[in-house]
Structure to design on (1420 residues):
């Protein structure tokens, strides 16, 4: 309950700092008898890795995951799965000059105020590097839900103001930006290069789809599945907004426009994003998450030091221009974790006779 | 953990159905020695009541709250506070014809699929009426945080496509729509009348501000305060999107535009909405929640019955044209509950020496 | 998490004080489609009622339960079940003279120190009366587990030093002491009369059996089912010790004596009390709970008032001589609640292929 | 909530199997600014190590702990503390012959039935080796409570039927059995030797004292501190009974004998074991835990294999004759963890004005 765990039955606890010895995660509640080796997890970690795009961080994180517990002869046993990713390249000297300075947009100031102590190296616990543990746990979650035919797909909806106009899922894996629009992708890359050259950074929007989800997942009234999805995504440091289905657009629709007519073949439209009254309706779940620009930029910024004295900061060194595309597998992971948890919670009810 | 509770230390559990005997809430974890009588709660229930606007439901809910436990001689004792609101006017006959029909946009279909049984009367547990218990609990939460000088204010940002252009907090209490723009309010009312006459409904956007919040609230990494706020608001049935600070707008900003410079006097801007890395920074918290149009409309809608047979439904009877303005105190309540919880969680750390 | 709830998936939250308006409980997580009316609950409340034995409290508690939510047309719906028992006879005047005095053995002193305020009337929240809500919730729990053939039976093992020598389950319902030994029961009653006449009180031991429990319930490593049972029983104010199977006797046994040999027909003995490594093994679960004597006695006791001034207290009025037999249904309830919770938790795993 | 975590605010999650790569623990919720290095933890691990007594397991576990996260420059930061203890000597070949056999007294049968799969090597997750992680977490917990002057001391009360008659705390550290009676200790060792020579094992009783605990810790009504202590101790695989204060003896006392008179100087006696109504009263907390004999014995035992076929098993190899004395630091750890959690929970209330 101290903030570093999520999920009730599929319970994920992450630990580790950006420049500490390692990062890791304990997954408690994973059902037994699921095939699981490091290879099942490594793939998603690769997708999250930097250095695949000229605009992403050149930091050479190998991010090799090791399973320390919870499997036996290649299968899960129902006991907690402990995963560790050693930090191979934690050069902290570049951060020494930031030891006493609060970087705008980061958690430097708030961690100092909350705890009276902080690991300033690379943002410590507040670093985006923490998400490596989420992705590892998400890979397991996705295996759990895949047994029920549930699949999570995330892609770049918008980057630096350039929106994907077409949605071709086959396209996603074909470009480094996980963009479903082959024409928009190059424009996005241009925006990234432009921002990089200006020492600035960019935000974007990620869309996450869930396919094959059965009706019935989600617990009224507070643990609605959209509520838990919103929390799961908003818990990613970069996310400043979450919407389900038509989302904010719903605010300017009328009831007859917004409601999804029901037919014997299913819902005629999917404005609800696959969720009614907090419970999945069997249709595709559609979520969008808005990501702010990376806070670390070379452009000089006004700030104060830990004594409140005004100063200026220009952040050099290794950092991405945008959390996109590396945030894509993180979003998938969080949605997967949320769904795995709700799947187990629904199973707990036993057969309900739902028609 | 079964979905009807929220909060770790300030723990709120609601119960009750739209047309059951009563609705209520148990608030566990409220600190002792706080003055509390029914009058402290009744005010917020009045603000949530229908019938104050021509476009809101004429249902005569008296919504009188009774404190059943947890206080002694007018003060809280630290033991659970049980509140009950009896249903005075639960005429269910109008719903009899809907017993076997799934209303589009409602939880009828999903509850049936999840549980294999549902109380069809007025939406049962999925009814917006459930929020009366949230508002009651929220009134207590707001007393808890008020002791630390924290105040929650919600208002109508947009209704039926009409946006408030000016923000005058003094204006909010002066109109039935809780709109901070005296010029926009009449236009919003016109839109409501228009939609009512068409048998249709409207959505809108609520803004919630938190003032006087100290830095340090929020628990990394999953229980970030923005993550918990997003969950708290998204758990309201009508909400389809939540954003913090600049929210979705952040997606098209650059780093230098989005980061809030820090000065000895505080943050120069507040694009972050008062939260960095999931922890409050002492600035005003700014949240927006997108509400979909009311699902119950008179206009005929295509749907199916419980046997999957196609049919048409036109919903008459008592229902609002928009959740706005009645959702305003509900949003305040959820934000208040979330903050009370995080306030206690921060207190648990003891003095931290935060500078 | 604030102490007034127990269970993860079958979640029970009680509220109410001895002399408040009412006591009650919210049961969240009860599976849908279980027949449930007040009559299903009232029976256990009757068994807990005072006044059936000359030595029990003459207080006329009617203890009529009302179901306020969570059922529809006589069946559970999966939504929270709210139960209320109004206090019909809360005459508090007798407690006025105790307002400023700490009664030995009670929670008067500790509540005052913890909260800085306390409802002194009848012990407030710390009163044994709180268990009425547990019994009500337990009645529902027992219905949940009965669907899987699990039954909970509690009886008086020992009272005032008189032990039941024979174990005839058929005998339990035949005497007011729920004693399985028809010869011991009258001796126990004599001890009660003797203690009453001396203005003193008695302790005892309760045995709780669980029959028909399938193997596999219990979650390693902290939520072992014996750990959760111990907590559930020790949370009853009067219980000072809990043991499973041979319990404390195990301390002086050797391995060959204590281990239960396994045969194709099952375990040859049941020293383990039906639990191995925290998981049920399919054998009968055997638990014993030691109850201290009632703290309220007429005999004069040395104590202090709230100002620390020494004084003497002699407690008159309505109180039992022993928590036995009224604690019997409370023990059953707590064990039932614990089992219902673990049953749902095991169901959450889905089919495990356990051989 | 999946069983491998304990505590609400001071939250301990253990992972690892007896013959896996490593065991470990994540401690979430530890307050910041506490000095912490491996040396603070290693001491307790040494006390738990085997090989210090001729009767304990000769297995050479080095049990070196490594702090992977949560500290910065030797102090805790408020972020999760991840500890790992690598398994240096996990020779599993001796267990190969037990792969298909259910050892009596162990979790072999129940794990197989619960999960349909089990790591048979050394008991897998059900091994006593799991407690190494508890001891590591307990060392941190004890530092947290030591800041408030709270100290936990455990000792051997009884072993193989030989009881300590005298209680000299100074004696505890002087003998390998942690026995407070210098005359009883040699008799206990004799019993151990005797049992070893017979291929049998012994049980015992551990007493745990808590000194310096302030009044007010414990949360009514389910999270009473004695309820949580009982759970914490009963979650140790070997423990079959727990009692507080006079414990089972209370059952045969009368009220006037059992109640602790209150004087201006404090409680005249301590039959309650420092806890009234589930809340600490400032007196010494006294707990006893009954431990069963080690289940692994050389003496031949009747059992079945995984196909239900009868067979006989005689367990050779590395195992202790009794969990005493190695369980002593484990008991201390569990009590320390429980108290640290309740200390933070009480702090969450803020100043209560308790008199």
């Amino acid at each position: 309950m101290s903030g570093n765990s999520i999920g009730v039955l599929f319970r994920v606890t992450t630990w580790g700092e950006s420049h500490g010895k390692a990062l890791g995660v304990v997954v408690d509640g994973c059902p037994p008898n699921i095939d699981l080796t490091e290879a099942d997890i490594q793939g998603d970690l690769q997708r999250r890795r930097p250095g695949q795009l000229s605009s992403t961080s050149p930091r050479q994180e190998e991010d090799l995951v090791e399973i320390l517990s919870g499997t036996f002869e290649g299968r899960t046993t129902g006991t907690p799965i402990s995963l560790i990713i050693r930090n191979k390249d934690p050069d902290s000297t570049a951060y020494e000059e930031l030891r006493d300075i609060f970087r705008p947009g980061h958690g430097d100031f708030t961690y100092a105020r909350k705890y009276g102590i902080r690991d300033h190296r690379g943002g410590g616990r507040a670093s985006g590097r923490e998400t490596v543990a989420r992705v590892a746990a998400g890979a397991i979650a996705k295996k759990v839900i895949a047994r029920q035919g549930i699949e999570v797909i995330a892609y770049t909806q918008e980057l630096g103001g350039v929106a994907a106009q077409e949605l071709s899922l086959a396209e996603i894996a074909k470009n480094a930006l996980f963009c479903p629009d082959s024409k928009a992708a190059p424009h996005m890359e241009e925006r990234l290069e432009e921002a990089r050259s200006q020492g600035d950074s960019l935000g974007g929007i990620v869309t996450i789809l869930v396919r094959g989800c059965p009706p019935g997942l989600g617990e009224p009234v507070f643990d609605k599945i959209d509520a838990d999805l919103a929390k799961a995504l908003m818990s990613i440091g970069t996310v400043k907004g979450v919407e389900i289905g038509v989302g904010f657009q719903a605010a300017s629709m009328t009831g007859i426009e917004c409601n999804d007519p029901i037919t014997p073949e299913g819902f005629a439209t999917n404005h609800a994003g696959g969720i009614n009254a907090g419970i999945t309706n069997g249709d595709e779940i559609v979520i969008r998450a808005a990501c702010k620009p990376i806070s670390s930029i070379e452009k000089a910024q006004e700030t104060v030091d830990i004594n409140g004295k005004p100063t200026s900061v220009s952040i050099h060194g290794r950092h991405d221009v945008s959390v996109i595309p590396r945030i894509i597998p993180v979003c998938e992971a969080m949605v997967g974790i949320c769904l795995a948890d709700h799947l187990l919670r629904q199973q707990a009810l036993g057969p309900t006779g739902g028609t």
